[in-house]
Amino acid sequence: MYELLKKDGLAKRGRLHTVHGVIETPVFMNVGTAAAIKGAVSTTDLQEIKTQVELSNTYHLHVRPGDEVIKKLGGLHKFMVWDKPILTDSGGFQVFSLAGLRRIKEEGVYFNSHIDGRKIFMGPEESMQIQSNLASTIAMAFDECPSSIAEKDYIEKSVDRTTRWLIRCKKEMERLNSLPDTINQEQMLFGINQGGIYEDIRIRHAKEIADLHLDGYAIGGLAVGESHEDMYRILDAVVPHLPQNAPTYLMGVGTPANILEAVDRGVDFFDCVYPSRNGRHGHVYTRHGKLNLYNARYELDERPIEEGCRCPACRTYSRAYIRHLLKAKEMLGMRLCVLHNLYFYNSMMEEIRQAIEEGRYQEYKKEKLDGLMSGRE
């Protein structure tokens, strides 16, 4: 159940009640594709850096170690020793981005594994069955994620197929949640809005899926090469047509600035690999923008990554030491940068929630964006 606690303009302060605990929104979900955050980050670390939701991927876990293996081991929560909510992506995006040769048919998609080349079939029912085996808190519907530069005629047909697949996902999840051997019989389902950069297709699709009364609604197929202006234009058009009494999730987004802008347009769930990927390359976020710790200027810098930050890296270590670790290719350097970046994102979401509660989101957003652009170190 989703509670809308406060609105400040279009910005929403909400609370999603799940079988694995309450999610305070707006929220950033920390991406652990294969049931782990890249960068040697443990679930104990996730607790310490204020993580509310961990996100894993259906396709990757189906290929390795296998969703049936995870079910035999008690589900994903038990497998990775995490007691808070988990969202599993449906695998749709990976099927369309990783699989190379594939055949899309009404029943689903035939493709080859990117790991060992074996033939795999995945459709709406298979995606729901895999996610039920994983026993995640929130399952994503299986959709087609067409290229943002595809012809409008193709996108229209693709969106219609995604709607038909969503109806099948909902029916299959209801069946799975009723079975006695299902680990999580209260698994939630989020549908996905598609339509490329065409406002008319997006709005029509939003209205169609809103009628299905789902647990949440995602906006997919953005942050895949279109401009920020196009992304914000689509959000301006689509979000008003999605239910206010359910979470709105912008998939795969993004930078701190992207999140601030999307919250202002009514989005309250986010995920992105940026903080962990950038951290693994020595790029760290601060309230004054991003730093590259490989830079020679930090060789003798005894300050933490960010003054006043309470993350595990900043409480103890200097920029100079972390730079040395990165240069020496010591895994600890990468790990500390990832922990800092995820803490930065999770803390920013706390600030966003507080600003909405206090009715000062516009002021907060301007102040935050000005700081991020300042480039001060």
Automatic annotation (TrEMBL):
By sequence similarity, the record places it as follows: Belongs to the queuine tRNA-ribosyltransferase family.
Q: Where are the catalytic residues? A: D89, D271
Keyword rRNA processing listed = no
The name this protein carries in UniProt is Queuine tRNA-ribosyltransferase
In this chain the tRNA-guanine(15) transglycosylase-like domain maps to 11-369
Q: Which domain of life is it from?
A: Bacteria
Q: Where is this region: RNA binding?
A: 252-258
**Keyword Metal-binding tagged:** yes
Q: Which GO terms describe its molecular function?
A: metal ion binding; tRNA-guanosine(34) queuine transglycosylase activity
